[in-house]
Amino acid sequence: MDKQRNSGITAGGLHILAMALMLCDHMWAALFPAAEWLTCLGRLAFPIFSFLLAEGFFHTHNLRRYLLRLLLGAVLSEIPFNLMYSGSVFYPFHQNVLWTFLLSLLLMALMDRVRQRFRPLPAVLGCCVLAAAGFLLGYGAMLDYYGAGVLTPLAFYAFRGRNWRCFLGQLACLYLLHVRLLGGYFYEISIAGFQVQLVQQGLALLALAPIWLYRGRQGPHGRAFQTVCYGFYPAHMLVLYAIRGLLLS
User: Taking 50 as the threshold, does the pLDDT of residue 1 lie above it?
Assistant: First the structure.
């Protein structure tokens, strides 16, 4: 059993993989728009980060500090995100992904209180109301990945575990959120003479492969590693914006 547990990917490994995939996506957006394979790889980043957020909620010793770290990261990342996304310091029509995760984390905390204070049926109804409110707020505030993005970490919160029911729940939720809701752009591919539409955002489902290889080991998780993980998001966007400026000058 210990040997099987030690064979999986660590949380630190998932962080590094997700950052690399996110970098691919942002390189496509900022520098190489013709290289669509970069954004295809990038589709896997968000579900991995969402899973890590849910795991972080269950493992954190100080939820308030966790929320404050996300809030600080969201504020510090807003200008780099605006610069990379729109080329201007102020762009109110799309918010960076840390705001999405901040709202998701707040909803998890509220859902936990509801589950502790009420009987199962009222608790389920209360959690559904909270999820619906988060979904609408995700669209209203124009958060990254919109309402579906807010609900993605909640899917890993609701279906947390290593059994077929949880795996099936995660798969079904990602399909509904990322194929049915966020899907739009697709590729026409031919398989055995049949034309099939492959939804680009549907590639997010492939993120479940490394997620399911996680077996609870933390890996690197010290303060320095956390600083690098939080700092990477605004820093790499500033670097990409600067490189794009040099290439266009």
Answer: no
pLDDT in tens, 29-74: 999 999 999 999 999 999 999 999 999 999 999 999 999 999 999 9
Residue 79 structure tokens: 């200008």
User: Is residue 97 scored above 80 in pLDDT?
Assistant: yes
Alpha carbons 22 and 81: distance in angstroms, whole number: 13
Cβ-based neighbours of 23, under 8 Å, separated by 6 or more: 236
CA 57 to chain centre: 14
Q: How many Å apart are CA 22 and CA 13, to the nearest integer? A: 14
**Residue type at 140 in one-letter notation:** G
Instruction: Count the neighbouring beta carbons within 10 Å of the beta carbon of residue 117.
Output: 10
CA–CA gap between residue 131 and residue 192 (Å, rounded): 41
Among candidate residues 93, 101, 210, the one with its CA nearest the CA of residue 151: 101
Q: Is 10 helix (H, G, I), strand (E, B) or coil?
A: coil
Confirm if 67 and 102 have CB atoms less than 8 A apart. Answer: yes
Distance CA 94, CA 83 (A): 12
